[in-house]
Every structure is written in C-alpha cells, then in structure tokens.
Amino acid sequence: MSIPKYYEFFSPVMECLKDGKQHTSKETLDYCADYYKLTPDELNEKLQSGQTILSNRVGWARTYLSKAGLVEKEGRGVYIITQEGKNAIKNDCDKITYDYLTRYPSFNDFAKRTFNKKDSSKTQQSDIKDEKSPAEMLDYAASQLNADLSDELLNEIMKISPYDFERLVVKLLIAMGYGTLEENKDAVTPKSGDEGIDGIVSADKFGFDSIYIQAKQWKKDNLVSRPEIQKFIGALATTQGATKGIFITTSDFTKGAVEIISKQTQNKIVLVNGKQLAKLMIEYDLGVSTVATYKVKRIDSDFFNEDI
Q1: In the β-sheet with 78-81, what is the strand arrangement from edge to edge?
Q2: How many CB atoms within 10 Å of residue 201?
Q3: Tally of CB atoms within 10 A around 7
Q4: CA 140, CA 99: separation in Å to the nearest integer?
Q5: b (16+ CB within 10 A) / e for 15-40
Q6: Cβ distance 94 to 114 under 8 Å?
Q7: Strands 210-216 and 199-202: what pairing?
Q8: What predicted TM-score, i.e. pTM, was given to this entire model?
Q9: For the segment 101-138, what is each residue's pLDDT rounded down to a tens digit?
Q10: What is the pLDDT of residues 63-85, one digit of tens each?
C-alpha cells in the first residue's frame, strides 16, 4: 500500500493517545506505522527536505487535531489527548475525519488560512482527497518547477558547441569542489588529438589526484552504449596513473553501458546522464539564477526553555 494521506492518520493518532497518557512524537509515529503495516521502503520515503513522508504526515495530523482542541502538546515532542478529544472518541476513533474537525471554530480558523478558503466549514472530505500536507505541497511545487527547469536547461545545453559543452562540464565539477578555476583553467583538452579524454580536473584543491572526463552532447534518443564506454576505459588505460573518470552525457546510457561499469575493478568511473546533469547544475547554481526564496520556520523550543 502507499503511505496514507495526512488526514488518514487522524484516527490512529487518536487511538494512540486515547489512554490519556503522555506519548512522544516517536511513539505516535511508531503506532501509526504499525497501524497501517507500512513496509521498510515506505518508512524510508522522504521529501526533498530529508524528512520522511510518514513523519511529515503524522506531524500534520497531530497539528490539525490540536487546532481542533482534541490533542495538546505537553512538552517538547510530547502529546496528550484533551477532555474534548476524549469526548470526541467515546464511540469510535474512526469518526475523526476532516469533516468532523470542521465543527470546531478553532480548526476552521486554522483551515481557512491553510487552504485559503473563505469558509472552511464548506470544505468537504472529498475536496481534499488528493491534497498533500502543506509541507508536501511546497515540496511538490519545487519538484515540478525543477523538473521544468531541467528540461529548459537541457534544451539550452543542446544549443551550445560541443567544445563549450566540455567547458560547461568542467565548470560544474569545479563548482562541486574539484580543484579551483585557476588550477583547472586548461582543464579542457585541445579540440583535436584528445585521445578520448575531453577534460581533466584535479580531484581536490591541492591537485593530488586527477579525474578524467568524457562529455557527450547527444540528443535524448541517442543513448551512450557499451562501445563508447569501452573506448573511454581504453583512453584511461593509455594515460599513466589514470584511475578515475566521469562520463557525462545529455542523453542516457544503455543497460550494457551501465553493466560494463559495474564490472570495473581497476578504475572508478561515474556515469552522469542528462537528468542528473541538469539536477547538479540547479543544485550548484550553474546556468540558473534564483528568482524567489521561501523560508519555512518552526518554533525554537530552546528559546522558550531559557530565560527570555
């Protein structure tokens, strides 16, 4: 099964807390995971921020329940059911749905701000069946924007000359911390007679080791196959002391190309396809610029535990 939506965790959270005792966020998390029999893979699914999806959704479920006054926070990461919460689950925890929470004015005030609706009491469960938690919405939006940006990047890359593409790859590796621009100013090999090596960068800022580059500016449907990888391996072999290489393409690699790399014992070769290339360029701000920044903040519990 897929990980339930955040509002589908209302019932198990209330089930966990219905004994009236204090429970930590980890305890409620573990209870919810067991309630839905989630697999290890599902437990490890993460947002771009690094937070697990389960933790995010259970966290928002607790938030919504607390906004309705059914749950309250007793301390740092500690929760307990309220008297109103006990009254709500006298018969059945399963009745705690989004629709049920809309009977509480405090929840409606919160939901009105969250979903940007003038009257959140009119927001039915069916309206949010496909909704993600607020944090997931931000994460999803960022993913969609970056996916579109990646396509645009690859389109722009295909317009430059092959030699400029090689220079772009070197600039990316430098941005990632491999040597410095001054040390690698001649990193791109001459246009002719490069013997299968398009560039060389130092593996560190001191230049103790070198990484050899092969860059293929190929169309999306022109995959890099086994023979191309074999040529690159051969080029490394003819270069004394060469053991590290990066093969970067704007397209992708065939299964045979990937397999031959997995069998390498003498050389360490990394394959980077078009999607990974665009992702790295976005991550290291190469060829892109920031148009907006959103900060997501949370309460600093330490601040309120100290003398203010």
Answers
A1: 23-24, 78-81, 71-75
A2: 26
A3: 21
A4: 25
A5: bbbeeeeebebebbbbbbbeebebee
A6: no
A7: antiparallel
A8: 0.64
A9: 999 988 887 777 655 544 444 544 444 445 677 777 77
A10: 889 889 999 988 778 999 999 99
